[in-house]
Write a structure and sequence with these properties.
The chain is mainly beta. It is built from no helices and 9 strands.
């Protein structure tokens, strides 16, 4: 079983200030984590993903996210928000469990 939670329905940030979009997850296996963005009148766009390796992942449009295993979090961050960052942001998880072939 797997799930993600984005606790905030709406985030208000002044232009130029840091932006954080929170995401926590629950998985039974190894988490593969993703962020997507949907700008007004556009389709869903991929921002970034964490599969393995460096916990700090850099993505498109100046965004980054940090994988925190102990807190089961993958918060999306941008150091300086723009008006054009107004959009819907979606966190997603894929639960990967390694099994033996029989």
């Amino acid at each position: 079983a797997q799930s993600v939670a984005q606790p905030e329905d709406r985030i208000t940030v002044a232009e130029g200030n840091p932006l954080t979009v929170k995401c926590t997850y629950s998985v039974s296996g190894t988490p593969y984590l993703f962020w997507y963005v949907q700008y007004p009148n556009q389709g869903l766009q991929f921002l970034l993903k964490y599969i393995t390796g460096n916990n700090l992942v850099k993505g498109s449009y100046g965004f980054e996210a940090e994988f925190n295993k102990s807190q089961s979090s993958f918060h999306l961050k941008k150091p300086s928000a723009l008006v054009s960052d107004s959009a819907l942001y979606f966190c997603a998880v894929r639960d990967t469990v390694m099994g033996a072939a029989g």
